[in-house]
Write a structure and sequence with these properties.
Elements (H helix, E strand, L loop, with lengths): L1 H12 L3 H11 L5 H22 L19 H17 L3 H9 L5 H27 L7 H5 L1 H19 L16 H9 L5 H18 L7 H13 L27 H17 L12 H21 L3 H10 L3 H20 L6
Helix pairs in contact: 1-5, 1-10, 1-12, 2-15, 3-8, 3-10, 3-14, 4-6, 4-13, 4-15, 5-6, 5-12, 6-11, 6-13, 14-15
Length: 353
């Protein structure tokens, strides 16, 4: 149910990190960024409320209960940067490719296959990288250092400053003619017109909080990376033990599995929800796939998978859920990812796909 709701929101609100930041960097249109900022703001407040029920008075040394707050170090920066380049080259993040699959995007298929290969590459390189850069790195959780109220105020202030700064690139909205509320208008707003950024972001943030309270943090890489690890483990192509991944580190990480997990049903729901939203709005269309487009999607997918493994998650798991959980790891991953997006779009790595 949660996945289906997210799929509908992603499709109707165009909650796509590739699209949002492409518009921001290429067209100087930052309106879509406000959906991300709103989702973070709602989530930060909501997570803090849930945290307060579980750890009423956090103190130094406490960790976010069951949230995606990970170690901060060079590996996180590299993982976020690689993931960002993968977003530009492949034309979307992992969550974006899942919802575009529901719209009929054939390019999402090699991108997701590339991600599976990238996860495998991440497992092959995990132990030396983790031993040097990840294990023993600090795991800053802002409420543990300052309490819930200061942590929430600090992060909301940062988001507000960013939002105010981006206003310079927010194009004015043209005045609309007065409209009567009728069935054609409602149908147009629901299925054909892009949903407002603030509404989309608020609903994504609210769903994230409810899902964390009921199940766990949102993320879209655990099932896919687990599938990759299980296949490679059966073939004895990766080390039998991946230090820290089996319980020691918090993140949307892989385990050896033999079934569909809750995370698997979540990502299935995203594809289904996107399809349900695309059909009545006539947005479902089988995308033509060229050899070059398939190749760049595969290459970008490899970077997505490798970056998500080293960074312990993706734009949904580390960026969104990590910042909502007031983890410094989320902010570091976000900064690295946005820097990679800026460079990738500047270099035109997304063109000719």
């Amino acid at each position: 149910m949660t996945g289906t709701a997210l799929g509908i929101l992603f499709e109707r609100g165009r909650f796509c990190f590739f699209c949002i930041f492409r518009d921001a960097f290429e067209e100087k249109n930052t309106r879509g960024v406000y959906s991300i900022l709103t989702a973070l703001a709602v989530g930060i407040v909501g997570y803090a409320i849930v945290f307060g029920l579980r750890i009423p008075s956090p103190s130094p040394g406490d960790v976010a209960p069951g949230a995606f707050v990970g170690p901060v170090g060079l590996a996180l920066v590299i993982g976020g940067f690689a993931f960002g380049l993968g977003v530009v080259i492949s034309g979307g993040c992992i969550g974006g490719h899942l919802y575009r699959l529901g719209e009929g995007s054939l390019r999402a298929i090699p991108a997701l296959l590339g991600a599976l290969l990238g996860f495998g590459l991440g497992f092959l390189t995990w132990n030396p990288i983790a031993s040097i850069f990840i294990l023993g790195a600090p795991v800053p959780w802002l409420p543990a250092a300052a309490g819930y109220a200061p942590a929430v105020v600090l992060q909301l202030t940062i988001l507000a400053v960013i939002a105010f700064w981006l206003l310079r690139w927010n194009p004015p909205v043209a005045a609309r003619e007065p409209r009567t509320v009728d069935l054609p208008g409602i149908r147009r707003s629901l299925f054909f017109t892009r949903w407002p950024a603030l509404l989309t972001g608020a609903l994504v943030g609210l769903i994230g909080v409810v899902y964390y309270l009921r199940v766990g943090p949102l993320g879209v890489t655990a099932q896919l990376s687990s599938l990759s690890r299980s296949v490679l483990d059966d073939a004895e192509l990766i080390p039998g033990s991946l230090v820290g991944l089996d319980g020691a580190l918090a993140g949307c990480v892989a385990l050896v599995i033999e079934t569909i997990t809750e995370n698997g049903w979540l990502i299935i729901g995203i594809v289904v929800g996107s399809l349900l939203a695309a059909l009545p709005g006539r947005k479902f269309s089988i995308e033509k796939l060229t050899p070059h487009g398939a190749g760049t999607a595969l290459l970008g997918g490899v970077l997505l998978g490798w970056g998500a493994t080293i960074g312990l998650g993706c734009t949904i798991g580390v960026f969104l859920s990590g910042i909502q959980a007031s983890g410094a790891s989320g902010w570091v991953f976000a900064a690295s990812l946005v820097a990679a997006l800026a460079i990738g779009f500047k270099l035109g790595l997304h063109k000719g796909t």
